[in-house]
Every structure is written in C-alpha cells, then in structure tokens.
Design brief:
By secondary structure, the chain is mainly α. The chain has helices spanning 45-66, 72-90, 105-115, 129-142, 156-170, 180-188, 198-238, 294-308, and strands at residues 24-29, 35-40, 122-125, 152-155, 268-273, 281-285, 291-292. 47% of the residues lie in helices and 11% in strands. α1 (45-66) runs antiparallel to α2. Bound molecules: zinc ion.
C-alpha cells in the first residue's frame, strides 16, 4: 500500500501537461531539494485535453477565489473548460458542434439542460451507480449518519446570468459585475468526477507559500548570523539551558532542542512536532532566529517516511 500526502507529492492526480506523444518524466518533490523521477506512460490525446481543461479551470478558479474582480474573461475561461470536461465525460462527443468545434459555455449548458431538465434552474447529475454502491459500502464501514450521494448541482440559471454579465462587459453593453453566487455556482462544478481538482490546487498553493516563507526566514537568519558574528552565536548557543524545558508559551510540551538547519547549533526551540509522529520539530532558533513552519515540518516528515518506509513497500 502506497500512501502519498499531497504536500510531498503534489503531482498526484494532476501531472504537468506535456505533448501527448512524448513520454512524461515527472520530478516528484520529496523534502527540500531531493526529487524522485518517475517515468509515466504517454498521455492519450483525450487525456491530455482533459488535464488541460482541468488545470485551466483550477488556475482560473484560484484567480477568482482571491479576487472576484479577477476579470470577466477568467470566469468565462473557467466555465467553458469545466463544462466541456463535464459534457465530454457524461456524453462523449456532445461537447463538439456539427463542425467539430468545442461548443461555447452557453451551448454546453443547452446540452446539459436537454438531457437533465432543470428544476428551479438547477440540473442535478446523480452520482454514477457504481460510485454510489462503492461509496455506500465505504460509508457503512467508516461513516456516520445517512450516506449523502456525490451528486453534482449545475446551477444553469445562475451560470447563464454570469455569462450574460461577462458578455455585457466584453461587448460594451454595461458594467456586468460578477457576484459571489456566480463564482459559487462555478466552483460547484468541481464536484464532478471529471474535475475534482480545486482541493489539490489549493494544497499546492499553500505548500508553495509555506516554502517561500521558509526561504525568507532562512535568508533573514543568515543575515542575523552575519551581523552577530561567530562569538555571539556561540554565546547564545551556550545559554541554551536557560530556555530549556517547559515554557507555557514557547515550549508547553517541553520538547528537546533540535539542530537548526541554518546555523547548525542544537538550538531550535521546538513547539510541536510533525503530524506523522516522526519527531521533526517546528519552532524558532534562539541563535539565528530561523523559524521552521508546520508545512515544511510535515513535508520533511513525509519525505522521511517516503525514504524509510514507503520506498520499501
Ligand atoms: Zn539557527
């Protein structure tokens, strides 16, 4: 059994797009700088297109999530790609018109509404039978309460209104203006099995932010070391005992100090350890001020697990 936490193996489920005729070689991040190269079979053109739609949808949604005014084109782009993915998955071929062109978002909504008549403006694609049976069995073992099927709600009325508003801006017919409900209806499409990519996209971005924070902290710590000099660094490390043991704020659990990856002294004051229980500490160095955050700690721990346990399986 191979289990891969998304922070360490961020490619999981969404490999980088590459020309389908080429074999894909993907560097999987493990820990700080090390990587494992995996050779993957070539993508079929259909899979390459599906992944391209998925990643365009995910990137556009992230832009809208941080800024509702990210641009009307962003909404249209996300919606067109999501609906094309949904229709291609449910009714293969129907995403194209008679001339073989990919239908517009409004036309794709027509296709969906023809097959699933909307109720109150909403088309509900039920969870496929085989998925539901599997989901119910899993829920019976591990879940609480009644099983909730993974149905997909396509709020065609709100999405059409979103399209009308973005078109109004594009064709100089008025101010347009997307509202939260338009973006919510767009994000709801992620429930469809052809997408389901927003969580991993958020995870990747969170990981990248934590890495950047770590790089800044390391740079600051190096500047501090430069400024205080070797003598002062040694003096601080010699005084480590005054910090040791329980401290209500800094070390409520009373963890031992760990080696700081920046200054090399055993002066990283640990406030918590990684979620996997490997024992890698998050905290701040009392000599150089380097601070190791929780995401980096969990990443190092999962890399350790990968190298020492999973790799043997
Ligand atoms: Zn340090």
């Amino acid at each position: 059994m191979f289990f891969a936490p998304s922070s360490a193996l961020a490619w999981w489920g969404r490999p980088a797009s590459a020309p389908p005729e080429m074999g894909r070689r993907i560097a999987v991040r493990v820990g700080d700088d090390s990587a494992v190269n995996l050779e993957l079979p070539p993508l079929s053109p259909a899979d390459a297109l599906r992944l391209q739609r998925e990643s365009t949808f995910a990137a556009s949604c992230m832009a809208l999530e941080s800024d509702l005014e990210a641009g009307d084109g962003t909404f249209d782009q996300a919606l067109s790609n999501a609906l094309a993915a949904v229709v291609a998955s449910e009714w293969p071929g129907e995403e194209h018109d008679r001339k073989g062109r990919v239908r517009s978002a409004a036309q794709l909504l027509d296709v969906i509404e023809e097959r699933i008549p909307p109720v109150g403006g909403v088309c509900v694609i039920p969870e496929p039978e085989e998925d539901r049976v599997r989901g119910e069995a899993h829920h019976a073992m591990f879940g609480d309460g009644p099983y909730e099927p993974w149905d997909v709600r396509i709020d065609a009325a709100v999405l059409r209104d979103g399209i009308a508003r973005t078109q109004a801006v594009r064709h100089a017919r008025g101010p347009g203006g997307l509202e939260r409900r338009h973006v919510d209806a767009l994000f709801a499409l992620d429930e469809h099995r052809s997408l389901r990519c927003l969580d991993s996209e958020r995870g990747d971005r969170h990981w990248a932010g934590a890495r950047e924070e770590d790089r800044r902290s390391q740079a600051l710590a190096l500047a501090v070391l430069e400024q205080i000099g070797d003598e002062e660094a040694a003096r601080r490390s010699a005084n480590v005992n005054q910090y040791e043991g329980y401290h209500p704020k800094h070390s409520p659990e009373g963890y031992d100090f760990q080696e700081c990856p920046v200054c090399g002294y055993e002066t990283l004051q640990v406030t918590a350890i990684d979620d996997y229980g490997v024992g890698i500490g998050r905290g701040r160095c009392i000599v150089c001020t380097y601070e190791r955050n929780g995401t980096v700690v969990d990443d190092l721990a999962s890399a350790w697990m990968f190298e020492n346990r999973w790799a043997d399986d």
